[in-house]
């Protein structure tokens, strides 16, 4: 791979905190504590503040007290401010045994599916600033390079850009000589047509420098008392993940139709059906909002002072809701033991990259990943002559006229994808 020049001080490596928690390690498809016991994630999606919930010491202490009562050992935070100091909140969560899994992107920098897909220096710089900010915390469990970037069945053309981001984040850690390699992964929308191609593509082959270290799935299939392991489709999810070479977990779950939630899926995830394959789950979400997924309620805000139409308080005294009590009871009754590190031998070798299948998985596994600064270009394609020629910094795709969205086809420059050859045609700028 071409060397990437990085600059800037690795702030996170200097922000060393006292270690109530040792960093997690990964071997094969499992997370492990420093003492060799297997780590199973009982996590909460914690985006109390839309911009950064980890900067208010008092609020973190209040919420952490309840999370300890709940039995949580992980939080997932979707947006943070890399310019802020997070020592207090990270230490508070560390002291109660909670690891933080942090998304590196924010709304301006996430990898777009339809924008068209691109991965450039500005995005990398923003991601690495977050990484530097958090790298020194021993309870940083891992980072996500994206969340639900692909949201439709014919959106697989964006997958190489996700993998390119993983590659460059790992290269950055290598070049900056991080004292430990922060586990780097992706959180996927649950799209039936893409199973298990996306999860396999992001971890296929034997090059750990470009593969995810873990894979998260946002799944809301287990709904209500009438659902079970088979009805929900969890049996199929488990089958698809059985030979996965890195840890896989539910990065969001907790269907709320009907309410109140019973969280019965946790018995399967942490039970004999799934505990040997899955590393746990993150429940969506901590704060009560209009979507009615909250475990706690901070009350209503004054409509006169509410920002952006958000009439829910984003902090203050949290009142546990019925879902909080239900989850607390369920988590208290599930205690997977797993396997100890010194007795675990991973038999899962490299998995094959999924073959390109028109209309299902539109990525050619033999094609190189996008380079830093590359943007996908949708260009006119003729069945007889193939895709039009574009500059080397671009990737060419074709559009299937039966599709209602931007599409998929083959190009030799950059990332090759396959799909229906047809005249198509949207041209977009190659460099952002």
Automatic annotation (TrEMBL):
GO cellular component: plasma membrane; side of membrane
SUPFAM superfamilies: (Trans)glycosidases (SSF51445)
Signal sequence annotation: 1-20
InterPro entries per UniProt: GH, Glucanosyltransferase
UniProt-recorded Gene Ontology molecular function terms: 1,3-beta-glucanosyltransferase activity
Gene Ontology terms: biological process: fungal-type cell wall (1->3)-beta-D-glucan biosynthetic process; fungal-type cell wall organization
Enzyme Commission number: 2.4.1.-
Localization per record: Cell membrane
Keywords linked to the UniProt accession: Glycoprotein, GPI-anchor, Lipoprotein, Membrane, Signal, Transferase
Bilayer topology term: Lipid-anchor; GPI-anchor
Its biological purpose: Splits internally a 1,3-beta-glucan molecule and transfers the newly generated reducing end (the donor) to the non-reducing end of another 1,3-beta-glucan molecule (the acceptor) forming a 1,3-beta linkage, resulting in the elongation of 1,3-beta-glucan chains in the cell wall.
Family membership noted in the UniProt record: Belongs to the glycosyl hydrolase 72 family.
Record's protein name: 1,3-beta-glucanosyltransferase
Organism listed in the record: Dactylellina haptotyla (strain CBS 200.50) (Nematode-trapping fungus)
